[in-house]
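Q: Predict the bound structure with arginine.
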Amino acid sequence: MFEHEQQKISERIRSFCVQNDLPQPVEIAWSPVPFSGEWGISTSFFQLAAQEARQIKERTGQGVNVPQRAQEIAASVAEYLGKVPGFSRIEAVKGYLNLYFSSSEYARRVVDTVLAQGRRFGAGEPKSDRVMVEYAQPNTHHSFHIGHARNAILGEAMARLVEFAGYETIRATYPGDIGLGVITVLWAYDRFYKGQEPQGIHERGQWLLKIYVEATSLLEKKEDETEEDKKRRESYEQERREMLRKWDAGDPYVRQLWKETRQWSLDELEDIFDILGIHMDVWFFESDVDEPSKAIVDELIRLGIAEDERPFGGAVIVKIDEKLGLKKEKYRTNVILRSDGTTLYLTKDLALAKVKFERYHVDRSVYVIDVRQSLYMQQVFKILELWGFPQAAKCHHLGYGFVSLPEGAMSARRGRVVLFKDVLDDAERRVLSVIAEKNPSLSGEVRQEVARQVGLGALKYAMLSVDNNKDIVFDWDAALNFDGHTGPYIQYAAVRCNSILRKASAEGIELQEDVAFDYALDAAEVQLIDLISRMPSEVQRAANEYKPLTIANLAYDLARALNDFYDRCPVLKAEPDIRLARLRLVMAARQAIVNTLAILGIETPDAM
Ligand code: ARG
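A: Predicted complex:
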């Protein structure tokens, strides 16, 4: 927000160096002075002093006391700068140069910047790096459960975050559309249900899960199995294997069956994307990279990275630790081709990465995948590194923990899953009843729309306000608590701003752009302004650390600070000049809350 000032002062420091025969600083880095009643920025002279000391040492062989010299330089720079417009004072302390803003000037600048930039407030300058975020990639022939929802919500927030931070962003999904699980469903569908299909996109998608559960049970050896059961089970198993073989061989009947049922899952997935506000740029499928991945195996053998043990009845493997020259076991050994020539999940990931790097030219690649796949992801990245991809070092696994409901754990094999659609339908019902009670004046149509925004907001925030690696026990009562650490609490803070502004306009108060904050700011105002001013740097930090949680926390802190301000500082009842300043602060706070929520993929209702 103060880049312009920083740059000007940096320039003056550089001319100071020229004039005083000092070396040119490599970089002049500014950081905020920790707030204690005054806002300021600060830069250190240690590096410059050390640079100079090295030169003196070379020339004369003499040593220099670097901290002392840093302080000397800081003090002379402070003197040289004299009075700088917009700053109330300058000091040199322990080798640092601190410049303090006058509080009223700072407050005004923050508020003006937010209101001039609007929805773009907090966004970063465009950058040349291209980032791909891969997320929301469930397996087909299955159903979308609450764990998948966490993945989709986290991935979308990550994509929005890097995009807002200024990176060119590509959203990608990679549904697992082949494998034994998919074949199991195909087999059972063909055997028992061919020609049937339930009505409704979600019903149909969810039906496949039922078939899967039923099939798994039919194929499972029971404890009290009779001879006859056994025979039947074995013949089922044989049919399933035959189905897999036929799929592999490209049998038209099986391929058609597969395409048709796969589409059912994709229809459901696209509808869920619509609900969640997700627009994918690229759709990769596991089945697309199966063939190409076989060529990669050959290449890795040729390069001496993989070992072909097929002649001895084995598989093709990569001894990652050995190839990396590690003495201790860390990444272990991976099979990349089975002895029967079929590929593995990992083989396909190698092919996928190649496409991401070579066709989409990504500089950074983020994978939103279950945290339990951490070792697996490291193995993929290390093989890419061995293979020679420079971008391998810029691959990042964004893991996420398990989601359960208070009633207990899920098991897809047993059909005990918490379906996303059920959770969402439940949300709408609950939110509608809360809103009917809190704000009976909202019309039916508006109420429906607000219920959607608040229900989704509650769900999304519950998923994003917990460290991504930690497990979540999702509880609607907690997520919808308007006084808790929740989405609705934050949305409500923004709505509160709206109602203050609406009241002001009803009272005929005309908002003005030219307002001064030259009164004694209340501590709650200071806190609010301080938080708002941090948004741009927090966005950069969160994007670079892959931490949407940082933004979730900022949103909550802003909402809390707003409520504090609301409790402590009269706005409409304040005297006219203060009132105008505070109204503008309310507008800025509202915008900052809306913008942080938007990064999280959460909409802000006008009223609720
Ligand atoms: N389809 C997989 C699953 O549901 C997730 C895919 C993750 N992405 C990847 N590149 N491996 O478990």
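A: The first strand starts at residue 31 and ends at 32.
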